[in-house]
Amino acid sequence: ARSFAHRLxxxxxPATIEMARRARMLRAEGKPVxxxxxxxxxxxxxxxxxxxxNQAALAGQTKxxxxxxxPALKEAVARKLLRDNALTYTSDxxxxxxxxxxxIFNAFMATLNEGDEVVVPTPYWVSYPLIxxxxxxxxxxxxxxxxxxxxxxxxxxxxxxxxxxxxxxLNFPNNPTGAVCSKAxxxxxxxxxxxxxxxxxxxxxxxxHLVFDGAQAFSIAAVASDxxxxxxTLNGVSKAYAMTGWRVGFxxxxxxxxxxxxxxxxxxxxxxxxxxxxxxxxxxxxxTDLVRDMAQTYSRRRKxxxxxxxxxxxxxxxxxxxxxxxxxxxxxxxxxxxAGGARIESDHDFAVAFLEEEGVATVPGSAFGLSPYLxxxxxxxxxxxxxxxxxxxxxxxxxx
Length: 400
Ligand code: PLP
Known about the structure:
By secondary structure, the chain is an alpha/beta fold. It folds into two domains: about 5-45 and about 290-395, Aspartate Aminotransferase, domain 1, CATH 3.90.1150; about 45-285, Type I PLP-dependent aspartate aminotransferase-like (Major domain) (Aspartate Aminotransferase, domain 2). It has 13 helices and 14 strands. It has helices at about 15-30, 45-60, 70-85, 100-110, 125-135, 155-160, 185-195, 220-225, 255-265, 275-285, 290-310, 345-360, 380-395, and strands at about 35, 95, 115-120, 140-145, 165-170, 200-205, 230-235, 250, 325, 335, 345, 360, 365, 375. The strands form four sheets. The chain has a seven-stranded mixed sheet with strand order 2-8-7-6-5-3-4, with helices on both faces. The chain has a three-stranded antiparallel sheet with strand order 9-14-13. A two-stranded parallel sheet has the order 1-12. Helix 8 (about 220-225) links the parallel strand 6 (about 200-205) and strand 7 (about 230-235). Helix 3 runs parallel beside helix 10 and helix 4 (about 100-110) packs across helix 9 (about 255-265). The longest helix is centred in the C-terminal third of the chain and has 22 residues, at about 290-310. Belongs to the class-I pyridoxal-phosphate-dependent aminotransferase family. Pfam families: Aminotran_1_2. Its cofactor is pyridoxal 5'-phosphate. Homodimer. One of its GO terms (molecular function) is pyridoxal phosphate binding.
């Protein structure tokens, strides 16, 4: 028999991938399918960024780069963290990875031992608990409720922390809810964390530029500078600059942890593609108007989608303050039967039936640890979003 590592046992495939597989199968049968399942900007990478990559390649930046990032990109990251986040990091407190995802992989591999707990607010981006589990970590969930605008409540966080807690993950603006914590929320969270000096903090700020209606994202390492020495501030170019395929993320953090993470990455992937790093540096140092324009487009689409969802009897929907998702509640649809005869007992049942009967791919809230909800990505065209909302209205109206 073929054998696989124990560390993979019991790791579920993310539901995002399962929905994509089902959508592909329907397409293969010739059925039209539209997808609101992917968390990926529909914009192209800015032309000036692509040009910087082109120039870097032609100029011979085609050799192995340093494991922790090219000096040029690390300097651009330091400027960015100072400019946008009021955070000062020296060169040995910064590292560049293959997407924000590898920052998390590096950090957890460098710190987790069997049975260590990782506190993850729900709903969450799927990778935090899955990566933690790969390294023997045990996710512990801190629910963020719709009534609280899906922001993290400090009391709820306090209850989730135990003597075995190694990490607390923060992700605001949040995937999947778009919730943004206020400065006061972050201060309250910091006060809880001060009582647990051995806990590392992962602040995933990858959606920081996608905030709407005057909302502002805050970095905990800046709001509570006494916590900076145990915080990893994670960011990247994927979401803000429409650069998901370039695979560049970065982290600011304490020297010793960054050195340990560099050690992990040196044995896994080495440095990130040198050409992609040149592109990322150009993006970070480039004009901010493109980012602002994209954020305005996401904001407009989000309003359009949320208003359409709120008009559907049986659905609820909080107005996201950031990122590019809507997270409607479908509690009013449970226990009912679709036009096609499927019984809806869960958000998973809902998402599968909605895909099969209406040809619209979404992701059930169960994938993000908070049910019964659906995640719809607004990072797609107005026409597709309008079609999806009309399909959703019809699907829900036809429930018996
Ligand atoms: N953090 C969050 C909350 C995300 O949603 C994603 C991507 O979906 C990432 C990090 C990682 O993105 P990347 O690895 O492309 O930088």
